[in-house]
Amino acid sequence: MFKHSFVAAFAALAFSGSALAQDLTGGDPEAGAKVFNKCRACHMVGEDAKNRVGPTLNGIVGMEWGKVDGFKYSSSLTEIAAAEGKRWDLATLSAYLEKPRDVIPKGRMAFAGLRKAEERADVIAYLATFGPDGATVDPAPVLEAAAGEGS
Ligand code: HEC
Fold first, then answer.
1. Are 61 and 129 in contact (CB under 8 A)?
2. Ligand 1: lining residues by beta carbon, under 6 Å
3. Which of 19, 47, 85, 106 has the CA that lies 20 to 30 A from 75?
4. What is the pTM of this model?
5. Ligand 1: centre distance to CA 56 (Å)
6. Helix axes 90-98, 117-127, angle to 10 degrees
7. What residue owns the CA closest to ligand 1's atom 36?
8. What pLDDT, on a 0 to 100 scale, did the predictor assign at position 23?
9. Structural domain spans, the chain
10. How far is CA 151 from the centre of its chain?
11. DSSP state of 136
């Protein structure tokens, strides 16, 4: 009995894991633009974007951690980035947006997190529409390229 429910729970977990990986490339950029309203107090995107409380997020999907010019990151972020060569692949970005402190324990992003997987996928899809210079790009190849990196 116990063994059975354990196996079932494990199978459910494994399944939701793979479903999540797919969901992360399937977000809706328009819905994500609304989710991004929760980020706008601190972050800008687009051609006129400037660093504010947080760095600009142009081209962030798939980018290395902590590479926005002129932004002073926390030492927690830069130390983890230097030690582990981190990128904002989809899994890492989703985990950070869910609970920033789980990914960067002493980081400076004072944000409670997005609890819903759908909101995370949507905002990631929205961010993927901004190329490194802030111009609009097709998000699909950006999301595909960032899906499998898993760093
Ligand atoms: C209260 C301000 C605040 C809010 C709200 C906020 N952020 Fe941040 N964010 C920051 C700060 C500050 C940093 C830099 C973190 C550090 O240095 O540890 C950051 C860093 C980041 C990074 C890493 C950037 C890089 O160059 O490596 C990403 C990605 C990010 N935020 C996305 C988001 C998204 C998406 C939202 C909304 C869902 C959001 N943030 C909401 C302040 C905020």
1. no
2. 38-39, 41-43, 53-55, 57, 60, 65-68, 73-74, 76-77, 88, 97, 104, 107-111, 114, 123
3. 47
4. 0.88
5. 9
6. 120
7. 39
8. 76
9. 2-147
10. 13
11. B
Query: How many helical (H) and strand (E) elements, i.e. helices and strands, does the chain have?
Result: 7, 0
Q: Ligand 1 centre from 14 Cα, in Å? A: 29
Q: How far is the CA of 121 from the centre of ligand 1 (A)?
A: 16
Distance from CA of residue 84 to its chain's centroid? 17
Taking the centre of ligand 1 as the mean of its atom positions, its distance from the CA of residue 13, in whole angstroms, is 29
Tens digits of residue pLDDT in 104-113? 999 999 999 9
Ligand 1 centre to CA of 122 (Å) is 16
Q: How would you label 46-55 residue by residue, b for 16+ Cβ within 10 Å and e otherwise?
A: eeebeeeebb
- CATH H-level, domain 2-147: superfamily: Cytochrome c-like domain (1.10.760.10)
- Residue 70, classified by CB atoms within 10 Å of its CB into exposed (0-12), middle (13-18) or buried (19+), is exposed
Interval 14-41: pLDDT, tens: 444 555 555 799 999 999 999 999 999 9
